Amino acid sequence: MDTKPPQTSEQAPVCTCGAVKPKSNKAKKWLKYVVVILSLSAVYFITKKPSQRLTMTHEEWDIFIKDHPYEAPAADAFRSPCPFLNTFANHGILPRSGNATYDDYYRAMTIAGTTPSVTKSFLNSVFYAYKEINPSESIWSDLHKAPYVTFQHIGQHNILEHDISLTRLDAAQEPDFTIPNAERIQSIIDTADKSTSMVGEKQLSDFRRGKWNEAAARPRSTYHFGLFFQFTSAMECVLLLDYLGHDHQISVDHLESFTLKERIPDDWYPLEQPLTTMNLIKRTRSCFMSVRKSKA
Ligand code: HEM
Ligand SMILES: *[C@@H]1O[C@H](CO)[C@@H](O)[C@H](O)[C@H]1NC(C)=O
């Protein structure tokens, strides 16, 4: 109770003491510099583009792709069930061997217009999901991410690869996931809008629903299309229509080039700005619902 007043009166002389005064002036000066530097750097970080610019302008892409010509895959190269991975590898944007590190996938995806946060969360799951567990090592080693993931790993059935795909037959019909099915792709092309030659969400969803109905008529053990895969299929609908295509549609020429020839069309260029997470969520939800609502 009686300790407080003496304390303040004891502190007062210390503060007004001559040795401290010039110091506090100096500190004030420094503080000014610090405030100026902090505000400048705040302005810098708020206005500057992401530290690593990931997407390209149309002009930058045209220069970039000249250095990344198409080459058919070598006999010993790995290929995947993903048209994007195969196509980018055929142009050397991903390793042509089909054996890639986290950084390789990160670069390819962000060039295509995925945001850093979406890319990191997706790739972290991938690099845990496809990690080979070595039974002779400790359990703790299971917690490490894979050092690389080959396209062959990515084809393992029912991890990411699933039935009722747009471009592949179901695993029970064609176990080789690297082979795009020309007939299937042609039937999607046939559904394109006749005046614009564009394929959109409705066409993809009706197609998928049709293939789902066909599979459901087969013996139950020959296909699987659970909730998780319905969700990843909806994402693949967005990957096709908004990253390979633009604005939730894709031209039949581009569709055929990416999925059947696995070659980047000459007149194509990737998103100039990443697709926002909000748009990604909205469009994925829309693709998901449209398969369930389809009357096909
Ligand atoms: C922005 C980058 C990407 C785009 C535009 C893209 C595009 C696509 C598309 C359109 C499909 C559907 C093919 C079909 O239904 O037949 C697909 C399937 C697939 N993608 Fe990708 N992809 C991307 C990144 C990746 C990455 C990084 C991985 C794995 C590391 C991956 C793994 C797969 C797999 C396993 C499938 C097969 C799913 C199925 O069974 O249908 N994709 N991708
Ligand atoms: C993939 O590449 C890594 C080096 O990055 C190598 O150690 C590994 O053996 C390769 N895997 C296959 C299956 O070729």
TrEMBL record:
Q: Which PROSITE patterns match?
A: HEME_HALOPEROXIDASE
Pfam families referenced in this protein's UniProt entry, alphabetically: Peroxidase_2
The record's section on InterPro entries has: Chloroperoxidase (IPR000028), Chloroperoxidase-like_sf (IPR036851)
- Supply one GO molecular-function term: peroxidase activity
Q: Is Lyase among this UniProt entry's keywords?
A: no
Heme haloperoxidase family profile domain location? 66-282
Q: Which residues cross the membrane?
A: 30-47
Q: Which domain of life is it from?
A: Eukaryota
Q: Which UniProt keywords apply?
A: Heme, Iron, Membrane, Metal-binding, Oxidoreductase, Peroxidase, Transmembrane, Transmembrane helix
Q: Which family does it belong to?
A: Belongs to the chloroperoxidase family.
| Protein name per its UniProtKB record | Chloroperoxidase
Native source organism of the sequence: Absidia repens
